[in-house]
Design goal:
Elements lengths: L1 H33 L10 H4 L5 H11 L6 E8 L6 H17 L10 E2 L5 E8 L6 H14 L7 E5 L1 H35 L6 H25 L5 H30 L5 H28 L7 H32 L22 H11 L1 H16 L20 H12 L8 E6 L3 H9 L4 E10 L2 E8 L6 H13 L4 E3 L1 H35 L3 H24 L13 H29 L4 H28 L7 H33 L27
Antiparallel strand pairs: 1-3, 1-4, 2-3, 5-7, 5-8, 6-7
Helix pairs in contact: 1-7, 1-10, 5-6, 6-8, 6-19, 7-8, 7-10, 8-9, 8-10, 8-19, 9-10, 9-16, 9-18, 11-19, 11-20, 12-17, 12-20, 16-17, 16-18, 17-18, 17-20, 18-19, 18-20, 19-20
Length: about 700
């Protein structure tokens, strides 16, 4: 008997070390793959679009023309008081130097003076970079080093390639600043939550390990299945790893602290903690993963790729928090909680009445009044969505105005009669003359010229009279697509139009799939129909209110002149998946109390009192991690981070605390209809209540 006991205890001591060793081996194997993730990241607009999009077809056909895909710049020379002869000579010399250093398409660029004499524009094209983003960025940077301000003459490099390079620069800068800021925010919150000089560091390090593993897994997905990897998707994957991972850690550590008072050995306490909260963590993470995987139904490559990458992040966080974190906590023992060490057989200090107990009591006294007031507030906030600005233009995508945007704004003001952003048309070579005549006869076309021919196609460059991405230019693009049968209409403005159209299609397809998938999972988990419907309606209301708050601040407060087409879909998927995540914690505990025979009102209030603190802490951490995106340099990331962060806070402190609780109290046992718990109180005895989760 003694030998058997010794072997068991030896196994208990050895298992955490074994888990730790396996993670070390796993990270060593993942290292080379994680380092390569940046190499497969692509941020061109055509990489976001589906292959069937008209503008994508143009980009692919241009690759088959002599010289391959073109890189287009616009060099803009400007002097407010009017250009001098010396200015024109300086401009000509700089453009000539650029032509000597790089292989430009066609003849040496010719300057186009503005009618007011203040601006000189040089359109520049080159096939030298091709489709290589690094070569494109090097070409743009070199052009900026050659053409520069001189004696009061301002020079800006704009055009599609310069805009793309500036956007690429922001995406490349996300990796370091985004990671460091996220880590700092999570660290501060964990220190405040745990009130320990050491404990906060363990979940943070484990989350960092999970993020490293997620990067390797994302690279593997790209290599195995061609999953699209963008700067936005990798950044959001990191936020999910730290946000969701820290949430799971909060739940586990909270339960582990309780079990340390009941068990002498940390190993036994951790086993009990995993039995108690493990099912809820598995269920919530599975729901988030399924919700994100619904993005596979999207046509937009960037959205479809974000689904698997987000899922990988959540699953890596789950694996680390349920294996590596417990092993480290057990090895470090009780002293890790210093100065608030949970001693064996000790009783926690009697706490004064908690905030969540007070909230629950107020919701329990007048549930219908609380429910109606909360619903009215969310509805009023949702009306703000009517104030969301229109589609985001390419020149408005930057928080801080870069050189390329300045150039395009100068051109728009100095050349109101023409656009500096051409439309590219690929037409069958045998019908090029007829197509050219049709194009020139289309309303809104200022100029059209035939370009390269090859592989059975002819390239036609079209200059319209309206500013880029204006209603008039959009009408011209649609007219060209309608009149040119068998041709493809592309270029930067056409790509943005295709992005908006594809995003609208994705919303109609993906949103119902997400709702149905999440609802079915909740029905299976809660063995009820009413409770899952309540949670789904709640998270949809949160999404509407969060978008409404965005409409109230994006333009009036932030100065944003447009809304990203993908904001509605991505914010919906994340808020529904993550909001239901917290709903599972609350409802799972409410169900446990009901199974123990508690009356509906008592079960709801007990669930809120026992899980409210953990859910609030988790919500604060998740909201803070997504709020990190509001410090990034692209408007679409700021908008997405704001809506999700605000939505998580609304869900945590209003919907989950007041509305779901008050609705559960008002519905009584009907909240569990048609399950056994919806019947007589004796029905609770038909099922065995599991251990508490919170």
């Amino acid at each position: 008997m003694g030998a058997a006991t010794t072997r068991v205890r030896g196994g208990r001591r050895g298992l955490p070390w074994l888990v730790l060793g396996l993670w070390v081996v796993l990270l060593a194997l993942a290292g080379p793959f994680a380092a390569k993730l940046g190499d497969v990241q692509h941020n061109r607009t055509t990489d976001y679009l589906p292959a069937s999009a008209d503008s994508t077809q143009v980009a692919r056909l241009q690759d088959r023309l002599p010289g391959g895909q073109t890189t287009e710049l616009v060099l803009v020379y400007h002097r407010a008081s009017g250009l001098t002869a010396a200015d024109r000579a300086t401009a000509a010399a700089q453009v000539d130097a650029l032509a000597h250093r790089h292989a430009l398409t066609g003849r040496t660029p010719q300057g186009i003076p503005s009618a007011d004499g203040t601006t000189l524009m040089y359109p520049v094209t080159s096939n030298e970079p091709g489709t290589d983003e690094k070569k494109r960025d090097a070409f743009v940077d070199d052009a900026r080093s050659i053409v520069h301000d001189t004696g009061g003459l301002s020079v800006d490099v704009g055009g599609p390639a310069a805009l793309a390079t500036d956007a690429s620069g922001v995406y490349k800068s996300l990796g370091g600043p985004l990671l460091y800021t996220t880590v700092a925010v999570v660290a501060i919150l964990l220190i405040l939550i745990y009130r320990s000089p050491l404990l906060w560091l363990v979940p943070l390090v484990v989350a960092g390990v999970a993020d490293f593993l997620a990067q390797a897994a994302a690279y593997a997905l790209n290599q195995a299945f061609g999953t699209a990897v963008t700067g936005a998707s990798t950044g959001i994957m990191t936020i999910l790893v730290f946000g969701a991972g820290t949430d799971y850690a909060l739940l586990l550590v909270s339960r582990y602290r309780e079990e340390l008072r009941r068990h002498e050995r940390p190993y036994d306490a951790m086993r009990a903690a995993l039995r108690g909260c493990g099912p809820a963590v598995l269920a919530s993470s599975g729901t988030v993963a399924v919700g994100l995987l619904c993005l596979l139904a999207a046509d937009l490559n960037s959205s479809r790729g974000m689904g698997p990458l987000g899922t990988v992040g959540v699953l890596c966080a789950l694996a680390a928090m349920l294996t590596l974190l417990p092993a480290v906590l057990v090895l470090l023992g009780r002293r890790l909680f210093w100065p608030l060490i949970p001693a064996y057989r000790s009783t926690p200090k009697a706490a004064r009445r908690s905030l969540f107990a007070a909230m629950g009591s107020s919701a329990g006294r007048r549930p219908l009044t609380v429910l109606a007031s909360g619903a009215a507030l969310l509805g009023a906030l949702a009306l703000g969505a009517l104030n969301l600005p229109g589609p985001l233009k390419q020149v408005d995508t930057f928080v801080d105005r870069p050189d390329s945007v300045t150039a395009m704004q100068t051109v728009a003001k100095a050349y109101p009669e023409r656009s500096a952003q051409p439309i590219e048309i690929l037409t069958p070579a045998g019908r090029a003359d007829a197509a050219l005549a049709t194009i020139r006869g289309t309303k809104g076309v200022a100029d059209a010229r035939e370009g390269r021919t090859g592989a059975g196609w002819t390239e036609i460059t079209v200059i319209v009279s309206a500013p880029p991405q204006s209603a008039a230019e959009t009408a011209t693009i649609k007219a060209l697509r309608h009149r040119l049968d068998g041709s493809h209409v592309g270029g930067p403005s056409a790509q943005q139009l295709d992005l908006a159209d594809t995003s609208a299609r994705d919303r109609l397809v993906v949103v119902p799939i997400v709702l149905l998938s999440v609802l079915l999972i909740l029905i299976a988990l809660l063995r009820s129909l009413v409770a899952p419907l309540l949670l789904v309606v709640a998270v949809v209301a949160v999404w509407g209110a969060a978008l409404g708050l965005g409409g109230l601040v994006f333009e009036p407060l932030f100065g944003f002149h447009g809304t990203d087409p993908g904001l509605g879909l991505l914010s919906f998927v994340f808020l529904v998946a993550l909001g239901v995540d917290y709903g599972i914690f609350l409802m799972h505990r409410m169900r446990e109390e009901s199974l123990r025979g508690a009356e509906p009102a008592a079960a709801a209030l007990t669930a809120l009192r026992t899980t409210g603190g953990v859910i609030a802490s988790a919500g604060l951490v998740l909201a803070a991690t997504f709020a990190v995106l509001t410090n990034m340099g692209l408007v679409q990331l700021v908008e997405l981070g704001f809506v999700i962060a605000v939505g998580v806070l609304l869900d945590t402190f209003l919907v989950r605390t007041y509305l779901v609780t008050s609705a559960s109290v008002a519905l009584g046992r009907a909240v569990w209809w048609p399950g056994r718990l919806s019947g007589a109180p004796e029905a609770a005895r038909a099922e065995r209540a599991p251990e508490p989760v919170g």
